[in-house]
Specification:
By secondary structure, the protein is of the alpha/beta class. Helix content is 36%, strand content 23%. Strand 9, helix 6 and strand 10 form a beta-alpha-beta unit. The radius of gyration is 18 Å and the shape is globular. The two termini are 34 Å apart.
């Protein structure tokens, strides 16, 4: 039975400072509040998928043999995520993200990849076929090596698994063959501009043009996320804008991961595009009202209640 969601991605520890405003280059802003959370796009997305869905979630990732890695895995176990295929890399630190968040919820992030950069194609190849045979969706991102992502997408395709690529952060080079193995790509407006070497996406016309260029490169469907403004969908013979849900942002860290994890859940459940994107947008809207990445990921009943109130 194909009822599993696979997340192939990163695991980080987030070291967060909340400040009045983000500093300019060379500037120090004092008076902030510090806290530590588990994060990493792969781990965040796995938590989002697990909390928003009712199907098992498997994480393929790597951590160091250190306190950050152990704390990250302990947190993921609380959400009943299958960690069988998380590799422990001796002699390498776990990933760490340094995050600043301002009063409006905007953030700036620097990441030391650590063990995430050591997650190899061989690690993905070593995952038994049975894991992919049981999966309906694979979700991945670029906080791990591009070649590892490529192998994961190819293996998933071999078993008829729907593939979702959240192309963040955008690497220097994305092989054309990789994009041809992507059923759904979910860039934000900055990422799609960098992927295609385009100017900033200013309006729906720009979004439509950029999305079509990705479709022309072999991607099956494009979901361009636009933050509070919602998202723009483009697929074969279909292109339309979906408005977002108005909320007061406290912290936008992890909002994209909430969207992607919930989207993976919706796709795995066989929902149509309207329902899937509404579900994912609701998860993201809830997440920005809370501090932190993984702690902000909403549970299924919270998304259901939120959408019920929207009418």
């Amino acid at each position: 039975m194909k009822d599993r969601v696979i997340v192939l991605g990163s695991v980080n520890t987030d070291l967060v400072v909340k400040v009045r405003r983000l500093p300019q280059p060379g500037e120090t802003v004092i008076g902030g509040t510090f806290y530590q959370n588990q994060g990493g796009k792969g781990a965040n997305q796995a938590v989002a998928a697990a909390r928003s869905g009712e199907k098992p979630v498997t994480l393929i990732a790597a951590v160091g043999n250190d306190v950050f890695g152990r704390e990250s895995l302990a947190a993921l176990q609380k959400d009943k995520i299958d960690l069988t295929h998380v590799n422990i890399k001796d002699g390498i630190s776990s990933g760490v993200a340094l995050i600043m968040v301002d009063e409006c919820g905007e953030n700036a992030i620097a990441v030391a990849s650590g063990a995430n950069a050591a997650l190899s194609p061989a690690d993905v190849t070593a995952v038994p076929d049975s894991v992919f045979e049981q999966a309906s969706v694979l979700l991945t991102c670029f906080e791990i090596p591009v070649e590892t992502v490529q192998v994961g997408l190819r293996r998933a395709r071999q078993f008829g698994v729907t593939t979702i690529l959240n192309p963040a952060p955008v690497p220097e080079h994305v092989p054309a063959v990789l994009l041809s193995d992507v059923d759904i790509i979910t860039p934000n407006e900055h990422e799609i501009a960098r992927l295609l070497d385009l100017p900033k996406i200013e309006d729906e016309t720009d979004a439509r043009t950029a999305a079509q260029r990705l479709l022309d490169r072999g991607v099956g469907n494009v979901v361009l996320t636009l933050g509070a403004r919602g998202c723009f969908f483009a697929g074969a013979g279909d292109a339309r804008y979906f408005p977002g849900f108005p909320t007061k942002a406290v912290d936008t860290t992890g909002a994209g991961d909430a969207f992607n994890g919930a989207l993976a859940t919706a796709i795995s459940e066989g929902r149509d595009w309207v329902d899937s994107l509404r579900w994912a947008s609701a998860a993201a809207a809830i997440s920005v009202t809370r501090a932190g990445a993984q702690p902000s990921m909403p549970f299924r009943h919270e998304i259901e209640d939120f959408l019920r109130l929207q009418g």
